[in-house]
């Protein structure tokens, strides 16, 4: 098999941990597989460089930040190669550019346009472990770029797709995806398999291990992703794959919790045609990710709008809301809420999934403020103080500990 | 004017010092010049990375060391660009490869094959300060290489030559070339100008500020080099240029001292044809730089050979000497010697320069063990304990403090 392995900043955070990564790779090579390893910068390095840059400028040129930040991954890739070579496993490090990763010119948040796998294939054919500096590429004109948050995961998934690897293993300090956050519900169980769509909806469960951007790309390129830990490599991890590959689909796969949401209420909104469109276009233009929206029926030519946004976007949102002051009687911002989501592909073909959730929450006297459902997800907004209780009640209601 | 400026590791050793370098560049830009700045890694960074690598392997692959070590200069180039941009001076960082520096494939000690100045010229034409990561290039095939010791100086000189810059200023923590080491002779004076050849012969005076490899390249490419300090940029420094550019040539320019020499004596050598050739070929094959050689006249079919080598090569030299045991009666290694050199292009057209040296040394009762002369240099080997005394006596004899 050809395996693409990705090791994050924590997994390569010290010289000892890089040595540990070399040991993991050696075992996989011994099992007869070909390996492309994608590495992040040693944890702390990137932040140190950002601090350096910010000591000079609040707004350093993105292209210069790319030159600066791309160095950390290069260091790790060389060190890992040296450790592998020393152990008798031939290895070669490659920068993003050298690995053939060509991006657009949006410095610090570039998108991969294509990957020329020639150099990697050549080295794999020579029996070498290819160690790629993650998080980076080059523009058509040859300037170095970085891919933004989660860029190293993205590098690994994109390479796995381009080179048609059998699997892409993302190593972090967490050994897989759980039915819910084990810190909230100790009975949470590690999932063996989960579909891309479920993973995307369970984002908050996977946020620390997998960014949505990478899961989306894995889905698009049909890459089998595995989330596992470099600290317990003997544990199998969770396979994220397409729905068809999962034989027995549970009705509910997991419960996600998102506390970083604000509910915005707009009361007494003049009910003229297109008003909702104006408001949400203004928010979209400011790149604010509006999630759940509820509009109440108009009474006396007035209507109400409720929606949620990420807490980080609250200040920008308030600025935008000012523009609509003439048409709205009252604004209301509530940060003391949270979003609990029940996710499962099995919902599609089962009825009564939602009512079970509502009953479970009602039994705990938890009031639901907003409900929103999709094919494979039911989300509810509840008061923040009920967050953990709601998660546990739902985890229990769907027997996720079984 | 188009100026290429090079700032060494000490000059960019801290964030404050990089800011100071930005201030120097800003002033030069304000004076109406175009600037290409070549930077080293922040002092300490390269050694840290070498330590990292050596913790894994005593013999890391040179190509991996290049990937590793080339990162430090990239960081400095981005940071300096950010500092300049913030001050309102448009700047762009370039890796060696991006600056068009193409080398051979001898990793960790690559030689520059050519420089494609297109990218640099384009940015200069846009009024930008170009900040090049020194010490590195890429092979024809696009793999990163480093240029070995003094590589950043070499980068600057090669760029100045390729782009036909008016001057190449090498900034260190020393403000120029002195008639002798001021720590030995406080009356030593800074030279305004000196020829390439004199500089090469005065290597030990310039060793801390200029490597011979860079001076040789400057001579070959006819680049006007200036050695000056980034800590006292108001001081003019020393211009190293071709002989024709120096109107009034002093008879003696400086006195150099080299304590890192060993005198090797071979006594009772069988005087057969080619014996000296065998010996020195064996030493050359081991890359030992043999300096001064004296052969005494043969008596009874036996001869004596005396020569000097750098102290660092002593152990290898001894190993080689063993091969000649059958043909040599006695070997003798003396580390307690030093080489004092009197350098000056004016010697060519003046007589009595050597006799003045011998008189000065004799007046101090310093015995000369070996003498060797070239067109512009007289070197003598004396006992190491007389090193400083010899330097001061000669400095005085040629009125270098005047």
From TrEMBL, chains A, B:
Domain ACT span(s) in chain numbering: 264-345
Biological process terms in GO annotation: homoserine biosynthetic process; lysine biosynthetic process via diaminopimelate; threonine biosynthetic process
Pathway(s) this gene product operates in, as recorded in its UniProt entry: Amino-acid biosynthesis; L-threonine biosynthesis; L-threonine from L-aspartate: step 1/5; Amino-acid biosynthesis; L-lysine biosynthesis via DAP pathway; (S)-tetrahydrodipicolinate from L-aspartate: step 1/4; Amino-acid biosynthesis; L-methionine biosynthesis via de novo pathway; L-homoserine from L-aspartate: step 1/3
Matching PROSITE patterns: ACT, ASPARTOKINASE
Keyword Transferase among UniProt keywords: yes
PANTHER family documented for this protein: ASPARTATE KINASE, ASPARTOKINASE
Record-given protein name: Aspartokinase
Species of provenance: Arcobacter nitrofigilis (strain ATCC 33309 / DSM 7299 / CCUG 15893 / LMG 7604 / NCTC 12251 / CI) (Campylobacter nitrofigilis)
